[in-house]
Amino acid sequence: MTFILLAACITCLVLLITWVKLNPFLAFLIVGTLAALLLGMPLDDISKSVNKGIGDTLGSLVIVIALGAMLGKLVAESGAAQRITLTMQQFFGARHLVWAMSLTGFLVGIPLYYNVGFVLMIPIIFSVAYQYKLPLIYVGLPMLASLSVMHGFLPPHPSPLALVTQFNADITTTFGYGIIIAIPAIIIAGPLFARTVASIQTKPPTLSLCADRPHDTLPGTVNSLISSLLPVVLIGLTTLLSKIFAGNQHAEQALLFIAEPNQAMLLTIVIVTYTLGIRTGKKLSSIMMIYAEAVKDIAMILLIIGSAGILKQILFDSGVSDEIADAFKLLDWPPLVLAWVVTAVLRLALGSATIAGLTAAGVVYPLTQHMNIDPNLLVLSIGAGSLFCSHVNDTAFWLFKEYFGLTIKDTFRSWTIMETIVSIIGLIGVLALDYIIQ
Prior knowledge:
79% of the residues lie in helices and 0% in strands. By secondary structure, it is mainly α.
């Protein structure tokens, strides 16, 4: 009976978001409360669980996600992303242009959220395709594959970062494993797959997208690269140095303090405010306005992430998590495969990769309590499943279709298959890493 109620609640969540078109934040609140009532939780405990679910999920995420949004916005507004793209084009040349686009998406995808990266990169994609007279999909798909992989797999993006927190994974290890898995996924779903769909005809809505910033107004290449990747460099370098100075207590503590994501992101913002802001001629007041706009852009994402933690907490506090864990054991499926399947099904139903990943976390959370699973790989398995088979209920599907001027059929042939390839390669990579580690 418990599982029937749980299935009914998840179905209700799907219908509220997809059919009723209710805001996901409100849908999670309603379904979480409904689940608690149906599972027989005492009324006095329901509000406590709701508050704890939101608080525990957001407590360690708000600072990182907000500062990450600020960094991404400044990278976009300063022209650093455009400078990185130009440098990649010059380095790779016209013959290997699609590889340059993939690498650009990989680099700018670290600080930029997918939707921000998409809107920012579209003019660059159009400009490159127009300049080199290449098919638009052939140029654009490799970059967008990279952006999608980085968004779905790696912290500090919202869903992977929330999963790292919920499963008590290590952000540095997850990022390292994610990079290992991301590279083959990007290569196969990007440059290699793009060759097979290069003949698809596109009718972009406007050529004005080819306009970009004058090159002499852009920040330098070294400045752009270092500023964009600084959080990754700081966390990775200080973590490594802390192991080298393990015998020196004060040095080790200082390095681990900087390696903590909140502190690394704060230090990054302080530095890039100068390197990409003041140094390029921007006033501090205008930089603060950019930061304020960035936080507005992700306000709803924060609420959705927080509310998604409610379901996990309700299942845990009601005792249902133990029943779920026992049932998963009876299925005799590899836990990482099971996590991927659950997330992929939710992705098909809900559309949003972020919401699918966060919802799946509540369902598979009991696995971490009762089974010996590497939490870093569990984060990546759910991340891979959250990208599976993007279709008509996903806003990214329509962004790609409309900007590239495609038919529904051709969008399925290109975008949907690309996302599915990324998801499946991601699962294969997770299983391969699990086998190697064990």
